[in-house]
Design a protein that fits this description.
Layout (H helix, E strand, L loop, with lengths): L4 E6 L11 E6 L4 H10 L4 E3 L5 E3 L4 E7 L6 E4 L2 E5 L4 H10 L2 E2 L11 H6 L3 E2 L2 E2 H4 E8 L4 E6 L17 E9 L1 E2 L2 H18 L20 H7 L10 E3 L7 E3 L5 H19 L8 E3 L4 H11 L5
Parallel strand pairs: 2-5, 3-5, 4-17
Antiparallel strand pairs: 1-2, 6-7, 7-13, 8-14, 9-10, 11-12, 11-13, 15-16
Helix pairs in contact: 2-5, 7-8
């Protein structure tokens, strides 16, 4: 099977941080069949969607990266939606709004894909991707075959799903939304867009969304704000002045620049409140010695 690929490819073209070095080979499957072919054929690979919560090493990656951005197939059948893993959330939010279906309004402000949003159980404004999920079509890496899991089998929690265990890869998903008044859906979408505009940087200011997860019964943004990190700004990176849980690439930042600022934010909260925040941003790529040191602090040796 022929699958489009490019060699010695600069991955920062696809990351919302606009950071990332050269990758030996990047694959662009267009269908679930092409993706399954790659998953069976390649021995080692990194699978990525819209790269919206990724910090990719400026050192790059000496291996295969599979990007699902070309997997754009979706169907709306009544109140049921079927979508490939690479379909973008904002697109589905708008298309389901046009069909007077409610449940995806929160995705309008997320640049991520369906695969990434299920992987991390994305949520905002009282809605979560798991709320409307019916079942997932998955690739079992151990058995090398396609399997299906119902919502109850997906291990959903706050920013958590069974996909994070590494055994399964999402190919596509099925959802059940609710019929609703289109004007009410549009109102929610506009409210969510307004909220994002007010407190979150647009992608014109390259960023990867929230830097740290909310600790139980608290807000990472609140803790970071109280710890005084909004004043942190360096040559290439800074903390967003409207919300303390965002880091902005000022134009030519490297992965080390971001990690160093993350460590300063992490340390400020730890010293002031004895709380160790967990990164929401996923680090990927071949680490330099400096990146190894910084990731050891931030990811507590859990990061691959």
């Amino acid at each position: 099977m022929q699958v489009e690929f490019r060699e010695n490819y600069e991955i920062k073209k696809h990351t919302t941080y606009k950071i990332g070095g050269m990758v030996s080979k990047v694959w662009f499957p267009k269908t679930q069949q092409e993706l399954v072919f790659l998953l069976k054929d390649l021995k080692d690979y990194v699978l990525l969607g819209n790269c919206s919560n990724i910090l990719f090493s400026s050192n790059g990656y000496k291996g295969n990266v599979i990007l699902t951005t070309e997997m754009r197939h979706y169907e709306i059948n009544g109140s049921r939606i079927i979508a490939d893993c690479g379909v973008k959330g904002p697109l589905l939010a708008q298309k389901t709004c046009d069909a007077s279906l409610s449940g995806f309004e929160f995705m309008i402000g997320f640049p991520g894909s369906i695969g990434g949003e299920i992987y991390m159980n994305a949520s905002c404004h009282g809605q979560a991707i798991s709320d409307t999920l019916v079942r997932c079509c998955l690739f079992d890496k151990d058995k090398k075959e396609i399997v299906y899991k119902e919502k109850s089998e997906m291990g959903f929690g706050y920013r958590k799903s069974c996909l994070q265990d590494g055994k399964y890869i999402l190919l596509g998903a099925e959802f059940e939304l609710k019929k609703s008044n289109k004007e009410e859906i549009e109102t929610l979408i506009n409210r969510n867009l307004g909220f994002r505009k007010d407190v979150q940087p647009s992608l014109a200011n390259p960023n990867a969304g929230s830097v740290f997860k909310n600790p139980e019964n608290d807000s990472a943004g609140r803790l970071l704000d109280k710890a005084g990190v909004k004043s942190l700004e360096f040559e290439n990176v800074k903390v967003w002045d409207k919300h303390a849980n965002f880091i902005v690439n000022k134009g030519s930042a490297t992965s080390v620049d971001v990690l160093e600022l993350m460590v300063k934010m992490f340390t400020a909260v730890k010293e002031n409140y004895r709380i160790e925040l967990s990164p929401e941003i996923i680090f990927i790529g071949d680490k330099s010695k400096k990146e190894e040191e910084l990731c050891k602090i931030l990811y507590q040796k859990k990061q691959k």
